[in-house]
Amino acid sequence: MQNHLLITDNDPQSELSTLxxxxxxxxxxxxxxxxLQLDGxxxxxxxxxxxxxxxxxxKIAEHRPFYQITPLTDRLNYCSAPINNMGWHMTVEKLLGxxxxxxxxxxxxxxxxxxxxxxxxxxxxVLGVDTGAFTGFLYMMQHRENVYEIYxxxxxxxxxxxxxxxxxFERNFNDIAFAKIKKFIKDFxxxxxxxxxxxxxxxxxxxxxxxxxxxxxxxxxxYSWSGPILRAAGVDYDVRAQEPxxxxxxxxxxxxxxxxxxxxxxxxVRNEEMWQSLRIIEQALAKIDKEPSHIFHADVPAFxxxxxEEVYNNMEALIYHFKIVMGEIDTPKTEVYHxxxxxxxxxxxxxxxxxxRSPYRLHFRRPSFINYQMYAPMSRGMVLSDAIINMxxxxxxxxxxxx
Amino acid sequence: xxxxxxxxxxxxxxxKFDGHINLVSEPYGLLTFETEREQIIEVLSFLKTDLQFIxxxxxxxxxxxxxxxxxxxxxxxxxxxxxxxxxxxxxxASADVHIxxxxxxxxxxxxxxxxxxxxFGIVFDGHPDLRRILxxxxxxxxxxxxxxxxxxxNRIDKKDYFFGR
Lengths: 403, 165
Description:
The complex is a heterodimer of chains A (403) and B (165).
Chain A: E1 17-21, E2 33-39, E3 42-49, H1 57-61, H2 70-74, H3 81-96, H4 102-130, H5 135-155, H6 175-199, H7 203-209, H8 217-222, H9 228-232, H10 239-242, H11 263-289, H12 308-313, H13 315-326, E4 335-341, E5 346-352, E6 361-365, H14 367-372, H15 375-379, H16 384-394, H17 398-402
Antiparallel strand pairs in A: 1-2, 2-3, 4-5, 5-6
Helix pairs in contact in A: 3-4, 4-5, 4-11, 4-16, 5-6, 6-11
Chain B: H1 6-16, E1 22-25, E2 31-35, H2 37-49, E3 55-63, E4 71-79, E5 84-92, E6 98-100, H3 109-120, E7 123-125
Parallel strand pairs in B: 2-5, 6-7
Antiparallel strand pairs in B: 1-2, 3-4, 4-5
């Protein structure tokens, strides 16, 4: 059995040293191991080892009914769990051919864009921390907290949200939730502006990030990159724009692109995406006002759990409740691929269904996993401190990496 | 939808690989077909260079134990220019689970193939570094194959027939 590759250096004359960066290193923000061979400060070669928190989600998913798979998706990219949840709901809805009311689409868009903002807050904040500027991170963190309070108002939990259901939301947004969303989009822009003022032309930050780990568009595409880091390399691929889901075609937003794909470009692209997300949320709030305010799910009794009071007092509701929970409803025997624009890139769900209550096969196309494989090759020739901020700006989330 | 229709795509593919594009279907508008492993690299390379499918979205595996060729490798490729996706399947016999690697076309295929190998035991010939990726190195089985149950099969409280399965 071949073990994971170790760089052994038996030459006593050699000046090279081997460094284990990770699995638990404070600078890697997660469980990543990279065995690096260093010549002084410079990386000669590196090998990534992943899988430290592999939890066999794809295997587990083969044994669970569709609605019980949502909590698994939470634990992929836990910095923006709602996007994963919605992506999964939409995959199942696509399989079943369920059409969502516009209001549900807009509610989903609000949640997904809030999640994108929190994810980018973390990534860009931590990039600042890794270059020695703690202020921006702490300053922005307060607003991630505010978004988590919005989630809490809507679904009761904060980090692993399990938000929404197949067929819509479990309950309507209440007035406090709307008030908190409105407060957030009013309070956050000045903070983001100040954050940008703190970094964008900061001499230390720019010196540390500019021309660090540049990636050409060809290389990025060859490595199947997607998301902000691909856009930073100059490719304007955004799933929201190219294959609009959840009524993204109704919104006006721009897809920011960078030029040379270095760390600085990725930082700028993510900042701009936060502005675009705010713009989308604003539009969604305006659109929601024009929709009937009582609608928060599609009319699909065969897949959407009825409220408990109905189950106890109403025959049809009881039957549907039983059928949903026991998995007695036929589903089409086919396969479906659905992609959403996750905070890190194209988050895809490939679902093969055999008509049973759980998928025959479910595969997650996890952007972190696919983006991260370039890390070791691209670190070659870099100094160690640059490799650290390069990792931060790839925004690899261990949960999504290892599934 | 995209700038190039599935019919046009299929026409181009069938004229180039006559007889090797089988079982064509379009679930939810995504062109899906099967081919053989002898052709797969040529098909992928034709899609990539001639039809602008420059983005390899995903490679994954599937296992149908009852089929004559039980192991499937599934490719999703995407043309960013035309906004079209294509799904390609190749099925392999269990005695000979070998398929040529796609790392010659896309560097990104490297880890996707390692993952498929890790979970299904499908061997990608010519892969530069075919090792396990998510599971522990000394694992002896390929856990996503259907013969490996998720839970202890001796449990009696979770039989499928209790759940109408």
